[in-house]
Amino acid sequence: MEKREEGKLGLIPLVGLVIGSIIGSGAFSFPGDMAKKASAGAIIIAWVITGIGMLTLGFVFQNLSNRRSDLNCGIYSYAKEGFGDYTGFNCAWGHWVSSALGNVSYLVMLFCTLGYFIPAFGDGNNLVSIIAASAVIWIVNGLILKGVKTAAFVNVVTTIGKLIPIIVFIIVSIIVFNVNIFTADFWGGMNTSISGVVQQVRSTMLITLWAFIGIESAVVLSARAKVRKDVGKATIIGLLGVLIIYVLISLLALGAMKQAQLANLKSPSMAYALELMVGKWGAVIVNVGLVISLLGAYLGWTLICAELAFSASKGKAFPKFFLKENANGSPENSLLVTSLLIQFFLICAFFSKSTYQVLYSIASSAVLVPYFFSAMYCLKLAVTKETYTAGEENIRLRDMAISGLSVIYSIWLIYAAGLNYLLLLTILFSAGIIVYRKAKNEAKLVAFTKTERVVASIILILGVITLYLMITGKITVV
User: Fold this and answer.
1) Angle at 37 between CA 31 and CA 43, to 5 degrees
2) CA–CA separation, 147 vs 327, rounded Å?
3) Residue 373 to residue 95: CA distance in whole angstroms
4) In 3D, which of 302, 287, 288, 296 has the Cα closest to residue 103?
5) What is the model's pLDDT at position 295?
6) To 10 degrees, the CA torsion angle through 156, 159, 164, 170?
7) Residue burial 456-477, b: 16+ Cβ < 10 Å; e: rest
8) Can you tell me the distance from the alpha carbon of 318 to that of 309, in angstroms, rounded to the nearest whole number?
9) Of the candidates 61, 433, 30, 46, which has an alpha carbon nearest to the alpha carbon of residue 230?
10) Rounded (5°) CA angle 18-21-22
11) How confident is the model at residue 436, as a pLDDT?
12) CB atoms within 10 A of CB 7
């Protein structure tokens, strides 16, 4: 039996962290976002493909968590162990910055939603909103300093709070569901505003794949789990729960209201859809739930973000400064830098909307890189038979097939992000070279192998070229 440690995270907090990290603001906009892109039939196909892809990725994290339980530095450690220090660093660096930028979007959306109740917040990007959002940054910073377990408990509470209006929406949608409305234009042939079925599926999947960012949250905090196997369980349980919720939200809405009506709703469309179904209180309860959801997602991702930098420092990829913990076991310096980074990006969002969009576009693509290398490492273990015994041949072949599918799916995700976003990543990774060299110098280690030096040089050259193309307007991010 595995040893349990006091003050660490059990299965329920880990599951809450996975669900809370995945479900942010996107779920509350699904009804309208999906209806704008596709018909019911295409949405079903998109969910089947996305569901299979994400379940294979969830299996990868579960399998790696169980087979390499000695790797306690999250998904960064999988890339490092399988493909070298520099690859591991880029995964950690990209994931960390991505998480910080994602939190900025949560803050902007939070005060945009509060603008429904308090008009002074406007669209969440005015001076009043930025000041209030800054207060949230440092309140959450203080909460996490009280201890990771305390923060995880609050995350579980906010996760429950965000699920209540979603469940209400699902129940009401079931009650008013009309099969004739759902099947009226099942493949979208009568709707001239959307493309053919294949294009519908492709455009809808771009929405669904972003909705699952955060699947790795339990793995990131694996070192703080009471029981190591709970990390894998939490990943799969959380993923399946979120998948069911997402499918119900997007499909039931198409049977409760006509597609064209849903497509024209303002964001968050769930609020306005429920308002049309049951009256004003429907919009109120959904908007309150969205506020809770965003607060919970922000808390969960701040916790993950701080842990990412702390774990990378523990693995000597980030400077030693990030290693300091306070008396409550919270990564004090890592959290401080994370909060300062979020604060900086929040100010950027206020002064230059276009700059914020560029930064967030880079970050959204960056998080896909560690997904790809985690899938590759899981496949590598199965191919090389590492960690497998002679009696596990059938299990090894099964793992090889599933991790292979996950690699293919991860490549598709990177491809779907688009060439411009991939080029923008080179700017992010170029900036990281300075941090990586400092960490290696502190550890008195050689920074790059010959191969890594070539890779770093190519990244740096592409980063400079991409920056020039951005300045001259030849590369733009929409």
Assistant:
1) 70
2) 9
3) 12
4) 302
5) 85
6) -130
7) beebbebbeebbeebeeeebee
8) 7
9) 61
10) 85
11) 93
12) 12
Distance CA 361, CA 307 (A): 23
Report the alpha-carbon distance of residue 10 to residue 287 in Å, rounded. Answer: 30
Q: What is the pTM of this model?
A: 0.82
DSSP one-letter code for 259: H
Question: What averages of pLDDT result for each successive group of 10 residues across the chain (478 residues)?
Answer: 56 80 78 87 90 88 84 79 92 86 84 88 86 94 80 74 90 94 86 78 74 71 74 84 91 91 86 91 90 83 86 87 86 93 87 59 74 93 92 93 92 77 86 92 88 94 91 74
At 319-366, the pLDDT tens digits run 999 988 888 888 899 999 999 999 998 888 787 765 555 555 666 677
Which sign does the torsion angle of CA 258, 261, 264, 268 carry?
Answer: negative
Report which residue type is found at 43. I
**Distance from C-alpha of 477 to C-alpha of 423, rounded to nearest angstrom:** 11
Backbone φ and ψ for 225, nearest 5 degrees, come out as: -85, 140
